[in-house]
Recover the amino acids of this structure.
């Protein structure tokens, strides 16, 4: 995912969190690279949306900007939506988590 696109998502996620504060979990997985981020993101997504549903949205789109990592699912048909998750790599804090309909 291009850095400018990631930055736009990060800005929107941070603004959304300011307007509508939510408490999301902190990842116990240390995020050092894309592979560790995907593990951390899946660990946060599976309990909420189900492992089967999230894995069905592979291949994931992943990007990072500053200290934030973003991952979205892949839409295989015109029905439904995809997940979006943003995690602060320094703290492991999930900043934004949602799934479209």
């Amino acid at each position: 995912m291009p850095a400018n696109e990631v930055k736009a998502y990060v800005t929107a996620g941070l603004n959304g969190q300011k307007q509508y504060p939510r408490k999301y979990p902190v990842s116990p997985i240390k995020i050092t690279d894309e592979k560790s981020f995907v593990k951390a993101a899946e660990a946060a997504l599976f309990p909420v949306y189900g492992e089967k549903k999230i894995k069905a949205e592979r291949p994931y789109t992943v990007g990072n900007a500053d200290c934030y990592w973003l991952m979205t699912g892949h839409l295989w048909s015109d029905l439904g939506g995809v997940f979006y998750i943003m995690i602060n790599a320094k703290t492991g804090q999930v900043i934004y988590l949602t799934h479209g309909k």
Notes: Residues 20 and 26 are 18 Å apart (CA to CA). The two ends are 22 Å apart (CA to CA). Residues 3-99 form one domain.
